[in-house]
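Human: Note C-alpha cell order:
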Amino acid sequence: MSEESFDLVVIGGGPGGYVAAIRAAQLGMNVACVEMRGTLGGTCLNVGCIPSKALLESSEKFEDASHNFAAHGIKAKVELDLSTMLARKDKVVLDLTKGIEGLFKKNKVTYIVGKGEIKAAGQVAVGGKIIKTKNILIATGSDVMKLPGVEIDEKRIVSSTGALTLDKVPAHLIVVGGGVIGLELGSVWRRLGAKVTVVEFLENIGGVMDGEVAKQFQRILEKQGFNFMLGSKVTSADSKGKNIVLNVEPAKGGAASKIEGDVVLVSIGRKPYTEGLGLDKAGVALDNRGRISVDSHFRTNVAGIYAIGDVIAGPMLAHKAEEDGIAAVEGMAGQKTHVDYNLVPGVVYTWPEVASVGKTEEELKAAGANIKVGKFPFMANSRGRSVGQTDGFVKIIADAKTDRVLGVHIIGPHAGTLIAEAVSVMEFGGSSEDIFRTCHAHPTLNEAVKEAALNVLGRAIHI
C-alpha cells in the first residue's frame, strides 16, 4: 500500500465538506477531500437543493406563461418541453460541480474519488491506499429515510432523487410527507400539470413551522390545487397494477382507506449517512439517533476526529453544514469559533416562499416567554401589489420587555431573501426598533419587514 500524508482529510465533498476543505487550505493546511460520488457538491448540488431549485424556477415560468401573463397584457401560447427543462437542470448541476473542482485546484486541495473509511485516528483508507493525516473531518451528510412497506424503485415509487428525473408529468403524484422536500417537488409537478396529493402524519404541514404561517401556507397551496390528507400514515404500497395503491390509516387510529396514483414520492425525512465509515472500529461515539456525538468545537470523543453537517445534531441544511465546516477547521487552527443553531434560517422554495429564523410563537409561549408580535401583510405592500404578489405576511416576535427579536417568520414573495435582514439583526442581538429605524428603500418587498417591526409596538403606518 502506498501512503500519503495530510494535515486534514475531509470525508465527504458536500457543502460542509468542500467548504471546510477550502477554508482549511486558506488557513495553510495541506488538505485532501475524499468523495465517493464522483462529483463534488454532495446531495445538495447533485440531487437536492440545486436541481430542485432549477426545476422550481422553470416550472414557475411555465405556470406564469400559462396562467399569469394575460393580466400583464401578454398573450402567449405555451407548450411544455420537459426534456429541455430537465437538460437545463442537468447543465446547472454540471457547471457548478465543475466549478467546485476548479476551486479545489485554485486552493490546492487534493481531490480523491472513492469511499473513505477510518482505520484509526490519523488513518483513512480509500480503496487500497492508506492516507495518513493529523486530523479527520467527517462530512458525509445524510441519506433518504425509508418508509416500511413502501419500497423505492426510483421509477414509480421515488425519493427526491427520482422525482428530479421523471420522464413525463405524472397524472397523479402522491407525496408521502408534507415537509420541505415534498412540498417543493410537489409544486414542480403540479405546475407542470400533475394532480398532487400530500399524505402527512402530522395535523399540519411544514413540520415545526410557526402555526399561523403553516395554516396560511396550506390555504395557499390548496388554492393552487394541492390536496392534503393530514393526520394520516401510509402503511403499505401495492405497485403490481397500472397504478400504485397506497394503504392509508389515520395516525391516531381508525379505519384504513386506499389512494392510488401513477407516481409516489416518499419524502419523510433524512438520516445521517455513517455506513461503512469504520466508526465502530475507530471508537467514535454516536447518540441515540445515530448521529455522531460532538462537542461545541465539533470534536468527537476520539482525538483528531471531527464531524459536521447532517451527521451531527442540528438542522439538516446545507448552509448549516457550511457554517459547521468553517467553524471546525478554524477551531483546528486555534481560532475561536461559534455556530448558533437558533440563528440558522430555514426556507421552503415554493411560491410563495416560506422562511423563518429563531423561535416560533408556539415555542416561546410554551416556554412561558413574555412576547409581543407584529405582523404585516404583503397585500398592503406597494411592491407586492405592483408585481401581483400579495399572498402572505411578515411576522416578527420580540421580547416584551427588551424588544429583542426572538423569531421572524415570512410567507410571501422572495421570503428566502428577505429573511437575511432578520438573521443579521438577531445575530447582533437587535430589536424590532433596530429594524424599523433602519431606512428601507421604497417601493420594495423589504418594507413589509419594516412595517412588521413597527407593528410589534403598534406603530405600523400602512395598515
